[in-house]
Amino acid sequence: MVKRKAAAAPDAGAGHCSKRLKTTKTSTKGSPPFFWNPNHWELEKKITDGVSIQKRKATRGQLVVKKILEMLAKHEDDEDQDHRPIEIRAVTSLPKNNRVIQPLFYALATPNSSHATAIYPFFPLGDLEEWKQRAFDSKNKKPVPESHIWRLFLQLSQALAFIQGVLGPDHSAHTPLLHRDIKPANVLVASNGTTYPSFRLHDFGVAGEYQRRSRTEAQCELRCGTFEWQPPENPRINTAAADIWSLGALVHFLAVGQAPLGLLAPYIRAQVAAHGNQHPPGVADYETPLRYYAARVPRVVTPINLSRADQRARGLAPRQNSDLALYVHQYSDELNRWMAKCLESMARRRPSADRLVRGMGTVARGMLKKMGGQPALTDIDIEYE
């Protein structure tokens, strides 16, 4: 995936940070505070250079996720500047709830003065892509049940409405945020004791403060996040509507098996040919040519309510990609309609997170009850500590 860091930090959660190592421990409702001592843990699995799964030495089976985060640069003329990592500033400014993942612990200036350490709970089911691959793709490309998709749709709509400051116990208690990097890897799947999983938003590493901006301000370019999961107006993604498109892209991914994009390789060949066998001039604004093309390839939305005959008639199937099922499973008209609303090419036509919670949420609850009864409605409400 093509991802870039944010160029500027959000203003959310500002506060004083001393020069001494600062630690913060947190606790979940009904559980004691979590204490981190590196000597009591050992490496279980390395995920990336900065992310690993750690196992407690004295307790078999207890796992956590350790992240090394880059702290913000210090300015000599501003001793009170909050130089905590963007992710820590963002998530710790939010009230605790069951839709956004908070760190169990974080420490500044460790392992060195320019980095911080954050400890997060471990989710055995993995992120959205891992879960889909393990539970469905690897099992003869089984379709994801519609009930699961409705649950993701509603729960992440609640998460967006919450971080944007339109849902929650006290709207004025925290600075509204934009996530700006919603994609399968940043959604974790949680077991809740039923066959209907829950979904939680994670990784606020490029989050930014959300303000209702003028039309001119909304047109400002911002190249951060993962371009394949961003709307057609990117790099103008500093809006709530951009996060809504990315949510629709997750629904599309679960139903279709891929992001709502056109084919990248033919697009690159066509662009290079159109510019005299050279990359277009705009490539210079991106770190690599691939980042440019991932941002610019046309967004293509596949309907998810078509029969196999209709898919063949439209030339959508059988699909030639061996990683995908020959046909897209036929989902309900209701799910297709709400997905399409989120994936509108024009940002102003997309529903707000609040409208999704209230409008789509009502439809989702009805569909879930019809499909699975009360168990399908487990953990369907956002709750706060």
User: What's the alpha carbon Rg, rounded to whole Å?
Assistant: 21 Å
Order of helices and strands: EEEEEHEEHHEEEEHEHHHHHH
Please identify the structural class as seen in this structure. Answer: alpha+beta
The largest pleated sheet is described as: 6 strands, antiparallel
- Walk across the major sheet and give the strand order: 2-6-7-5-4-3
Poorly predicted regions are: 4-21
Q: What topology does this entry show?
A:
Layout: E1 3-4, E2 23-25, E3 41-46, E4 51-56, E5 63-70, H1 86-91, E6 105-107, E7 115-121, H2 128-137, H3 146-163, E8 177-178, E9 187-190, E10 198-201, E11 208-209, H4 215-218, E12 225-226, H5 240-256, H6 264-274, H7 289-296, H8 308-313, H9 333-342, H10 353-372
Antiparallel strand pairs: 1-12, 2-6, 3-4, 4-5, 5-7, 6-7, 8-11, 9-10
Describe the structure in your own words.
The structure is a single chain. The protein folds into 2 domains: 119 residues, Phosphorylase Kinase, domain 1 (2-Layer Sandwich), CATH 3.30.200; 250 residues, Transferase(Phosphotransferase), domain 1 (Orthogonal Bundle). It is built from 10 helices and 12 strands. With 385 residues, it is an alpha+beta fold. The protein has a 6-stranded antiparallel sheet. The protein is globular and about 60 Å long. About 5% of the residues have low confidence. Keywords: Kinase, Transferase. It comes from Corynespora cassiicola Philippines. This is Kinase-like protein.
